[in-house]
Amino acid sequence: MTVFLCLLLGVLLVVLYRLFITPRRAGSWGGDAFEASAYGLPPRAALDPRRPGPPPPAHRTEERQAVADAAWGGDWKAAERYVRTAGDDWDERWARLEVLQQIAREDDAWLDAWRAAAPGDCDAATLHASIMVHRAWEIRGSGYAHEVMTSDMDRFRAMLPAAIEEARQASLLDPANPGPWVVMITAARGAQYRRAQFKPLWEGLVARAPHHYEGHWQAMQYWCAKWFGSDRRMMRFARQAVRKAPPGSPLAGIYLHALTEAGDRSAAVTPMSRSVLKRIAASFELVAPDDERLPALRHLLAHSMVRSMLYAPALEQFRLIGPWCGAQPWRKNGNPIAAFDAARATAAKLSRTRPAPTPPVQGMAR
Predict the structure, then answer these.
(1) Among 146, 168, 211, 315, which is least packed by CB within 10 angstroms?
(2) Which residues make beta-bridge pairs with 324?
């Protein structure tokens, strides 16, 4: 028995050492002491903290700018075509509505003209309802309820029912379009919808678009501990998203957002949590490389993998990320370059990956 206990204690000490001491030592290997290029990574001097990934393709940026210029010039038909050409790709259609929402922040006279000229257009009505929700949230702010002025909270709560009704009316204009249901789900938690009220909204969305990314993100927020769920309920919802994510969709990334929402409360490393991260990595391999959601999700995945001691898979994610480090996990302490470099150094040093040998310096012949 004594020998068994000694062995058990020895194993425990090794695990604790690897869990707490070794990663800290590896983190100190960042900076000039870390030869990133030896592990297939860009050097520290090349890191760019301005963005999570490369800028959008030029043709996409030019198209968006053309739509904005036309809208601000009074041509709402360009905006209507921009959304309509997405067809039944509901994630893309929603992304285009979000672009139009940004355009409307500068000047929304074109949206008023669109709605007046085409009162039966579901996209125009959905866009207007979504803007109403976002304006309500801007009044409230992102603080906890006790931090919000009573007058602002009253205005916030008064605006949301009108936005939900606007979205409900929009849903009647095109029953197959999930956009209005995303708006209603987004507004539901602020409107204090209980679970019995939220359920038909969720069922309405997934009946039309069962893998809608934004809809799942907003529902995840509803189920988090600070609103109407709990860490356990939220993580169960996120694992379901991983399981049902279709090939080519970044839907599995909802799990990574749930881990971020839970924060230190999700620190437990289990075989199941590791297997989920590996499954997410595999699903990302099938997502289009130019999907603009993918870079930020890879940062979250690499961060979670380092925390879960999946060092070799994390290293692969850092290779795919490249020099970009302007993403959420690394910005918290105000120095994203240092945090990113330390994390990838940890992944490299503890992955048991052998660094590439440094080629010898050849002397010059006389």
Answers:
(1) 146
(2) 48
